Amino acid sequence: MQEIFNPLINENKNIEKEDEKLSEAKEKREEIIEFGSSNGVSQDESIQILLIIGQIEGHQVLPAQTKSTKYEHVIPQLISMERNDKVKGVLIILNTVGGDVEAGLAISEMINSLSKPSVSIVIGGGHSIGVPLATSSSYSFITPSATMIVHPIRMNGFVIGVAQTFNYFQKMQERIDNFIVRTSKIDKKDLKEMMLKSDELLNDMGTILIGKQAVNCGLIDEEGGIKDALCKLKSLIKEREGNNE
């Protein structure tokens, strides 16, 4: 009787294995569609990739045709990376036009508070709230052709024209300025001067920094590409592991 049932048992096991493979493939596909990466099923979990692209979406949902990064997706990812012992470091890839100030600053604080080494690289643009996102990591890079626009915060839509509104704007700006100064090498006076420049941007105020310029002013640590960013991250991981021994 055992000989009769053995082929059936083996067949059931094969079916279960195939179902597991299909389930893993489905999860991987859904993760790529949702987050643009497959960190969850990667064989090597030691270095996780965090993509921050398009516009930072906060409490207001952006139109469907707008490329966006949702903060309610990024924050759980960061928590998972922090809790996972297999994760040794995080590489943050930035190409953002900015977006919701509160959401961007929340993500920046989360990255900055990670116990694991993190390296950011601006590959296309790191504008507006993308500036603190770039400086929030342990070490930052910018590619030679990438740009960063430093400008004061602004608000669209209905605004009540009273003194309290301007005070609120000033407090919000102070929060951003203090974070950038705290997480980079730039002087606060220089940062304010760049934000208030009125001869670089059309119908706006601020400063455009291209590649090396962001490094020279102390905003970004180094000019380089993805190879340099990964090498630096591996170096920081080794350094941390050496200190923990």
List key phrases describing it.
245 residues, 2-enoyl-CoA Hydratase, Chain A, domain 1, 20% strand, two-stranded antiparallel sheet, 8 strands, 6-stranded parallel β-sheet, alpha/beta
Structural notes for this entry:
There is one protein chain. This protein is an alpha/beta fold and 245 residues long. It has 2 domains: 35 residues; 204 residues, 2-enoyl-CoA Hydratase, Chain A, domain 1. Helices cover 48% and strands 20% of the residues. Helix 2 packs parallel to helix 3. The longest helix is centred in the N-terminal third of the chain and has 34 residues. The N and C termini lie far apart (58 Å).
Write the layout of secondary structure elements.
Elements: H1 2-35, E1 47-57, E2 68-70, H2 71-83, E3 89-99, H3 101-112, E4 118-126, H4 130-135, E5 139-142, E6 147-150, H5 163-183, H6 188-195, E7 207-210, H7 212-216, E8 222-223, H8 226-244
Parallel strand pairs: 1-2, 1-3, 3-4, 4-5, 5-8
Antiparallel strand pairs: 6-7
